Amino acid sequence: MSDDILVQQDGAIATLVLNRPRMRNAINLAMWADIARLTQGFGKDDSVRAVVYRGAGTEAFASGADISEFPASRKDAETAQRYNATTAAAYAAVRECAKPTVALIHGFCMGGAVGLAMACDLRFAAEGSKFGIPAARLSIVYPSEAIAQLVDLVGPAYAKDILFSARTVSDREALAIGLIQRLVPAADLEATTYDYLRLVADNAPLSVRGSKVTIQAYLAGFTDDSRARLRALSMEAASSEDYREGTRAFLEKRRPTFQGR
Q1: Strand 182-184 relative to strand 122-126: parallel, antiparallel, unpaired?
Q2: Following DSSP, what letter does each residue of 165-229 receive, concatenated?
Q3: CA 60 – CA 117 distance, rounded (Å)
Q4: From 205's CA, which of 79, 162, 175, 256 has a CA 20 to 30 Å away?
C-alpha cells in the first residue's frame, strides 16, 4: 500500500484516509484496489466496530476517479472492463462490510467518490460540500450498483436528474433529497462523526450487524436463504454473552460492556 491511502485507528473506530490532497484526493486504480482489500480487513478485525472513510484535508472528500490515468488504464472496452471490475470490488467491499461505515465529507465529492460515499451506510457532510456525478460528460455509464444505491437514497426522479444533467448538487439540496444524513458546520464535522460512531461502537456488535444485514436483505428482496440467515443471526444474538450482559446491565442500572460474542 502506498502513502495515497492512510489507515488510522482510535479505539474501536478505524479511519481510511484518501491521501492525495494536491489532487483533491482523486482515486487512482491502485487506491481502488487498496480500498477493497483494507475494507475486507476491517470486516474481519474484531477490534474494529465502525469505519470512517474520508479525504485528507478539507478541500475534498475526493474529486472522483483519477481521470489522468484513463488514457492508459481505461483506454478501450477491454481495459475499461478491468478497471470497472476493480472499482466494483471496492464499492462491494464497503457496501458489504459487516461493520457500520460512515463517509465524512468535506468539500467536493464527485464522480466515483459519490459511489464510494453511497456505499457507506451513512454520509455526514460539512456545510459547503458539493456533490456531482459527471459521467454524462465523459460518455461513461455509471456503475449499475451505484445507480441502484442512488435511486434507493434519492428516488428515481432525482437520480435521473443528477445523472442526466451531470450538475453539481449543493449541500442543502443533498440533505433535502436524502443523499446525506447530517449537514453540520465544517468545524464540527469530525466531532459529530466520531461522537456518533463512539455511540454505535458502544452498542452490541451482534445487534448492529444483524440490523445492517436485515436492511440489506430487505433492499435486495427477501429470499428463503436470506430469511434463514437472518433467523440464524437472531438466534446467535439471543444465545450470546452480550445478550446476558445487556440484560444484567439493564437490571443493575449500569452501562453494558459488550464483547461481540
Answers
A1: parallel
A2: H-PEEEHHHHHHHTS-SEEE-GGGHHHHHHHHHHHHHTS-HHHHHHHHHHHHHHHH---HHHHHH
A3: 12
A4: 175
Nearest to 210 by CA among 226, 194, 221, 197: 226
Q: What angle do CA 79, 90, 4 make, to 5 degrees?
A: 90
Question: So where are the chain's domains?
Answer: 5-201, 205-251
Residue 106: phi and psi, rounded to 5, are -105, 140
Amino acid (one-letter) located at 67: I
| Fold adopted by 5-201 | 2-enoyl-CoA Hydratase; Chain A, domain 1 (3.90.226)
For the cut 80, the answer to whether the pLDDT of residue 2 exceeds it is: no
| pLDDT band (50, 70, 90) for residue 1 | low
Give CA–CA dist 62/89, Å, rounded: 18
Tell if the pTM clears 0.90, that is, is over it.
Answer: yes
The C-alpha R_g of the chain, in whole angstroms, comes to: 19
118-136: burial string, b at 16+ Cβ within 10 Å, e else = bbbbbbbbbeebbbbbbbe
pLDDT score at 237: 85
* 211-215, long-range: CB < 8 A, 24+ apart: 212/98, 212/100, 212/121, 213/98
- Answer yes or no: is pLDDT of 61 > 80: yes
| Terminal-residue alpha carbon distance, the chain | 32
2 three-class SS: coil
Q: Report the pLDDT value the prediction gives residue 77, as an integer from 0 to 100.
A: 84
